[in-house]
Amino acid sequence: MADFADRSLGIGYTDGASLLFACLIAVLALWYWWQGTASVNTVTTPKAEAFYWVAITFFTDSRHRTWGLDGRSGGLGYEGGTLVFAVGLALIAGLDFMTSVSRVLLFWAAFILTRPLGATIGDFLDKPVNEGGLALSRPLASAAIAIFILVSLFVLPQRAGQHPKPS
User: Fold this and answer.
1) What's the pLDDT tens digit per position in 89-144?
2) Is residue 165 part of a domain?
3) pTM of the model
4) Does residue 166 contact residue 44 with C-beta atoms inside 8 Å?
5) Domain around 122
């Protein structure tokens, strides 16, 4: 969707990301108005599932290149970009553990930050060294990410979630 906004609509990454973010907020607001919640825990009906997938479609790409979080623009670079998004996720986790801020709001905020974090890490792994990357091949970069995910699954404690009871 961000590429469509940039290339087809010709409005650039920043305006495209802003447009997609506005569409996401509108979908979440409609979902809340229609269902009384925008929680993914309630995606148990076709209507709620439709809202969920439309929200995912408009889910903002938040191009990390727009803010100089790549290796070429003289900004923070890939490492700095990764740190920015990781700190954002850590703050959201802190809010989850230490406050009563809406868990639905925190979920969607974390969900939005995962996309640019993944893009920044992916670019760091596969971009050329002269652009601030590690110059790994795409298959090797994908393997590195898969290994990280598998190790995380074994190292970090997992617990089963609770499903809402049908009404």
Assistant:
1) 999 999 999 999 999 999 999 988 888 788 888 888 988 998 888 999 989 999 99
2) no
3) 0.70
4) yes
5) 75-157
